[in-house]
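re: that complex we talked abt at group meeting.

here r the seqs, copy pasted straight from the sheet so there may be weird spacing, ignore it
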Amino acid sequence: TKRQKNILSFFQKP
Amino acid sequence: MFEARLVQGNLLKKVLESLKDLLTEASWDCADTGIQLQAMDNSHVSLVSVQLRADGFDKFRCDRQLSMGMNLTSMSKILRCAANDDIITIKAQDQADNVTFVFESPNQEKVADYEMKLMNLDQEHLGIPETDYAAVIKLPAAEFQRIIKDLSQFGESVVISCTKEGVKFSAAGDIGVGNIKLAQTASVDKEEEAVTIEMQEPVTLTFACRYLNMFTKATCLAPQVTLSMSPEVPLVVEYKIGDMGHVRYYLAPKIED
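got the structure back, here u go
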């Protein structure tokens, strides 16, 4: 099974 | 003083239609270069980025940078009051707590203005790294919409798989399995009907149908959509807004734990 990733785990906060 | 006038006002109507299901509120950042918006959906699975360049407007004035926080449901309600051929002007004073939308009929015989309260929203712009994508697929936007709609009947996820031969969309669920393969078009009469694939390496990724379906609300904006994919990074779904900018949706993939 695959799990939905969060977009925040790819793009950095400033 | 901020003022932006767009003769092709229906472009703005379409931009709002393509955002309002995904975002309830967001800030429009205005500068002398144009208007930008970046926001995540509530569950932080996707991110939307909109750019409207100043030179795409028929008149554009922005004396100082301003960030206009708006309830997009309200903005969409107001823009639905504009006819498709209306000229739309957005106006705000510096440090104002409201924004005005003016809709003029092409013959100037009907002029409507709507004022809307602005909101103070927490700004949290994410840094999107420059990425050389492993596969860039361009296809008719209506075709992509149809594929996602059809496959959504089968399951919650769509697997997008790109190879030299073409791109394959698949979904599986209780009722069975669906596969749709698109080959690169050899020759087409109209450029907008073409399917083109630029591929560095084959890539297969899984995405939630729910979000892809919401992205296809932007189908009215452009004849073609561009999908950019690399292993284990968010998918980019891009629609051009005439020749003045774009709406880009970033969607986090589903990944094996």
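couple things i noticed - Chain A has a mean pLDDT of 90. Chain A has no helices and one strand.
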